[in-house]
């Protein structure tokens, strides 16, 4: 197996910097759109053969060094009892958002081997399809990010209801986050048992919190998950978008890799964090709209800032956009592969 990704996560020696992209199984690929044209999004998530097919596509077409299972962070809330709909070109919607004490108490901690069995089957089918070519990453949303969607009932900007619960009923909010932390831990353990070689926690909305709120309501519950997670050496990646104010604290919770968005210089992140954990990131996803020459220049700059030695997993600073040309994604991965060996001699 090409295990560059796993070795870099563990800060072991590599011959070059491994690379993958968040949201790499998605709409920028014509091959994804062809599958998607025949099924709706949630059906794809729940049909292991379809999920496996689109998970492997970027390995074949883009040449990434890891696959990430095709699914969504919102399948957990669905398994907890919320009615999820993916509204075409609008995004996710929960028809029964969590607003009251009764709503919080009616949520159940799902048995992932039962209500999320289809995710485990997708992982097993994908492992088989990958045939050991590259490692497979499982994932979950963070408790805070999941709660934000569950309370709001959809994506948000102000996160009016979620922030209101946080400020007006902090104990209720913490109860919800505790339930989510336990649900996520069990879910990630099931993914590891089903063959995931690493797991990533997506805290996409960590950055909408104040630094204090972030530590008390987001990082605290990610910490609970990571510290209790039963695992067999498989790396854990924590990506809190917009949380550059707390990188040192994130690096201290026991994860192997800290994900960086594109708004921090990776050299600064490295000097704040030290060499305790590996770093993942952090090309501006919008850079993939520029020419292959510009993309290469940006890749070289990040490699140079990180400097010599292992502990860097190249990625975007957030998910790839659906209208990025495939050739630009390919140029990005090629540039990392060609420019990085000099930093590992
Ligand atoms: O990374 C991958 O390639 C694996 C698949 C993956 C998806 N969603 C597929 C998807 C992963 C890791 C996610 C995580 C996810 N889902 C996050 C966290 C990561 C991030 O990008 O911040 C969040 C916040 C969600 C919630 C979600 N799912 C939203 C807000 C939307 C609608 C917006 C959009 O991008 O369309 C989705 C739908 C979704 N999830 C799509 C894909 C490929 C598009 C669905 C389609 O094909 O129509």
Q: Secondary structure elements and their pairing?
A:
Layout: H1 4-9, H2 30-36, H3 41-46, H4 48-61, E1 67-68, H5 75-79, E2 84-87, E3 91-94, H6 101-105, H7 112-115, H8 117-130, E4 136-141, H9 143-152, H10 160-168, H11 170-193, E5 198-203, H12 211-228, E6 236-240, H13 247-250, E7 257-259, H14 266-273, E8 278-283, H15 292-306, E9 312-316, H16 326-339
Parallel strand pairs: 1-4, 4-5, 5-6, 6-7, 7-8, 8-9
Antiparallel strand pairs: 2-3
Helix pairs in contact: 4-8, 9-10, 9-11, 10-11, 11-12, 15-16
Describe the fold and architecture:
α12 links the parallel β5 and β6 (236-240). The chain is built from 16 helices and nine strands. With 345 residues, the chain is α/β, with parallel strands linked by helices. The strands form two sheets. Strands 1-4-5-6-7-8-9 form a seven-stranded parallel beta sheet. The protein has one domain (4-344): TIM Barrel (Alpha-Beta Barrel), CATH 3.20.20. The model has no long low-confidence stretch (mean pLDDT 98). The protein is globular and about 60 Å long. The protein binds coproporphyrinogen III (CP3). Coproporphyrinogen III is lined by residues 22-27, 36, 41, 68, 70-74, 86, 91-92, 139, 155, 202, 204, 319.
